[in-house]
Amino acid sequence: MLLRNAAVFLLCLAPACFGQLTTDQKVSDFLQLAGLYAKNYAPYEWKRDVIGFDLYNVKPWVEKVKNSKSDIEFLDLCVRYVASLQDSHDEFYIASDFVADMRIVVDIYDGKVLVEGVDRTALPRRLFPINIGDELVSVDGIPVEDLIQQFIPYSANGMGNPSTRRRLAADSLTYRYQSFMPIAGLVGDSAVIVTRDVNGVEASYTVPWVKSGTPMIKVGPVPGFDLSSVKNPKSADDLRRMLPDRQLSRMERRNPLNEQRGALQLARFNRGILRERTVPEIEAVPEYMRPYQELQTMSGVQTKQDAAGFGFFYPVFDPPANFKIRLGFGSADEFLTGTFKAGTYNVGFIRIPSMSPANSTNALKQFASEIAYLKANTDGLVIDVMNNGGGSLCYTQALEQYLFTKPFRGVAYEMRATQTWVNFFSGSLTSAKNANAPQWVQDLYQAYLNEVKQALSENRGRTGSLPVCGYTFENIAPAVDTTGAVAAYDKPILVLTDEFTLSSGEAFTMMLQDAGRAKVLGMRTDGGGGNPGAYNATTYSEGIARVTRTFVTRANLVSTPNFPPANHMENVGVYPDILVDYMTRENFDTFGGPFVDAFTSTIVDMIAQSKP
Description:
This protein is an alpha+beta fold. Among the domains are: 284-411 and 479-531 and 552-610, 2-enoyl-CoA Hydratase, Chain A, domain 1, CATH 3.90.226.10; 417-460. It has a 7-stranded mixed sheet with strand order 12-13-14-15-19-20-25, with helices on both faces. A 4-stranded antiparallel sheet has the order 6-5-8-9. It has a 4-stranded antiparallel sheet with strand order 18-17-23-24, covered by helices on one side.
């Protein structure tokens, strides 16, 4: 009989002889986690009324916690509780660096899990004749669809959209990272997989798990703790900043592969070549600006920001055959840009891989220079933010200033009102005054403080819309050149999105769509619409959680399939004006041919319609 529940099976493998947390300790930790979200989570009402998950209803979860048989089973419940929010900025994760990698890269095309890459250094062809494009049918006797459903709670950084969740869950079929997947530490030495080739012929292979790091098997009890005791549990401040090391991304795992399809990169690049990445530098700001800077970031947790291609530099498709590259080969290039001919028109192309550039000042200079060139030499512009995992909202808004020729609505969000924010903004205001900060900074902190205090006095969960990148979010001025003339691009713009367009990448698309400045082609974005903060979430099991504390708002109510009208991005995402799915077998086989044809014909039509 086939084993249908791998998670339950693995949890049962925990040796009974290991010391585990006591029931009281597990209940205490879970209630601490639930309380953290109850106090700080901004989109509570939306999740309760539309998603159907009430995080305040902890009773059934506490019963499960009491019945958990091991530390790993308990930690898995914590992961599943937070995952029930379906929020791309919220995760519960544990202090483990353990990774189990099958050295096979997969993704979902037309509903089937296809092999995108095989690491021939680990899996030589003579022993593992698995081909690119083969379908993965099962792992250890369990159909992949069953495993995908089981692994969806581990889809950190992609919870907002069902399609995103499924694709990230599929990645876990061959790549297990324990920080987000507690049961990963219990994986065996090998897995039996079944593949099916294009002719329908199936084959079975025993593939070794390549392991690194130290697996967490148990947390262990804290001696002497009893709920009936009058003693207070000790703090775990020394673990507050304990974050796991940066995870290898799917794209980076493709890097050494010689025969894989990889990232479907630019022009003549071999599949899977990875541009050397640089770590975003922390640009110097005055001390009083650091609290303000913290509120500007909307992106995936650091250990997952590159997963499933988030932030990958090259497009997932091959650009048109006559594409002429401008930026993209230089080590300091923050964008991939170029032009191509479409009929009688010249079309510009910019790929924005991330809203967390290595150097935002350098990036904005490059963007301004490219826009100036494209404004003078093209008839329309295609901007690719597929797989853009987000980053700084204010960097995002600064890019927008080169795309709007008239004042526009910038970034705004509502904030969960707490006494912590009152203290935070009060202290920031004092710091700004003592440092003789610009008046707009002092006014902004004062506005934040007033809004939070008013929301608390009125027993409201959230404030009204607040500016993020200045004293106001209304009538943001376009960029101008040295002569004072508007420097923004003034011709048709088409934005490309997919379900891995996340967070600030979505905000970028949202502002353009809401103002009617651009059309959007692709798939609905992920739906990660808030600013998260990391917290030490559970004392005894040393868990960490990210909590969404804000709620990005849109200019107007937007009607999107499967949701009621909403004025935000959370779960709703940005729905494209032209729905085109890249994840098809035909695109897989042709390196994005139909997708490129679709956006090329669309921008041509937009240009033609814009002509007198």
